[in-house]
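#structure-requests
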Amino acid sequence: MVMAMVCQPTKEQPQWGDSVAGHSYKPRNKAMTYANLMNNYLNPNSVYTEEDFRHHFRMRLPVFKRLLRDVQQVNSYFRQKRDQVGRPGFSPHHKVIVALRMMAYGFPADSMDETHRMSESTCLDTLAEFCDTIVQLYKDKYLHELNQEDMDRLIHKAEDCGFLSMIG
């Protein structure tokens, strides 16, 4: 089953996606790329299993879905929009997948065009937006300085794995 790409009309002018002077337009067929992504990983009866998803993206599928929902709620960059000529832009799924792939494997931005049909500049914008949004969303819960309770938990976990005196 192929899910249709849905664009939500917005009244605001997008602050991203302006063309770069001197660059030519490349028809990247975002709708086909979105359909492939959904059929490969996110639709029922996908080509790849949830275990494959975890292996490819270094996270469980439910974590990805929560992350996707959270970033869409906080940052309008991750909502489906249309470009200046009315074509659908990249889907939120697509943007988050590209950011995760770049982080999980250290893929350079220019390599994403072949596999995900996203230009280097869009990949870099997407990664920056994703990182900023993640920090904004989760800094209070996950990105705080360690306290003694955290240190004790980490030391105990390290000792259980055989790493004695891991933390100086």
